[in-house]
Amino acid sequence: MKKSLIGIVAFAAVALTACSGNDMAGMDHSTTTAPAATSAGQAAGHNTDDVTFAQGMVPHHQQALDMAKLVPSRSTNAKVLDLAKRIEGAQDPEIQKMNEWLKAWGAPTSMPGMDHSSMPGMAGMMSAEEMAKLQQAKGAEFDKVWLEMMIKHHEGAVEMAKIELQKGGSSDAKKLAQDIVDAQQKEITEMQGMLKSS
Predict the structure, then answer these.
(1) Which three-class secondary structure state does DSSP give residue 16?
(2) For the chain, what is the mean pLDDT?
(3) Among 7, 16, 103, 140, which is 20 to 30 Å from 53 by CA?
(4) What is the DSSP letter of 50?
(5) What gap in Å lies between CA 189 and CA 192, rounded to an integer?
(6) Which of 181, 159, 46 is nearest to 103 (CA)?
(7) Are residues 169 and 137 in contact, defined by beta-carbon separation less than 8 angstroms?
């Protein structure tokens, strides 16, 4: 009797997961955790660290996109141009994915009390003064400043992702965190090499 009841509960969880996949268009892992809702109205399979990770990483990624968008009009270095394009291509879909999770988890897409003035306190985030300096630079000077800032920015993202890997509960969020560590650590090494050869 117990076995059949467990089977029914497991089947119901799978069915709910399949149905909920349509609500999260574009999400790669719609059939893993976070199917059913708890009595608190939040999806199961995640914890507050997952929410904090997504709420922090979205504006962090957004600033990386802002920095990448400055490159085409300021740099003539083919390697910098290529890297900026790759950063945009990787981080924009990740922002969409994290916003979808936050929506599914019933969490706000930004941290309570978070505004632009408090962002520089986040790991690797540039201040308004640093962003202004970057916007004013051109050519080889821009490339140097951009690479130095993006290394710092990536190091902050890796730090945040490692916290998620240690404390997070969502397998999807932890997979993304590992992807961020792997990709951005590789790009840090690439950028360090570009600075040395410049």
Answers:
(1) helix
(2) 81
(3) 16
(4) H
(5) 5
(6) 46
(7) no
d(CA 148, CA 196): 11
Whether residue 60 has pLDDT greater than 50: yes
CA 180 vs CA 44, 69, 165: distances in Å: 24, 20, 11
Question: 89, 92, 84: which is closest to 143 by C-alpha?
Answer: 84
C-alpha pair distances (Å), 136 with each of 19, 85, 88, 119: 50, 20, 21, 21
The answer to whether the Cα torsion of 182, 156, 104, 67 is positive or negative is negative
Q: Encoding tokens for residue 40? A: 């608190």
Q: Which residues contact 196 (CB under 8 A, 6 or more apart)?
A: none
Tokens (6 digits) for 116:
């632009």
Residue 37 carries which DSSP code?
Answer: B
Q: What angle do CA 78, 120, 198 make, to 5 degrees?
A: 25
Whether pTM exceeds 0.85: no
Give the list of residues 6+ apart from residue 158 with CB closer than 8 angstroms, or none.
Answer: 180, 181, 184, 185, 188
Return d(Cα 34, Cα 181) in angstroms, integer. 23
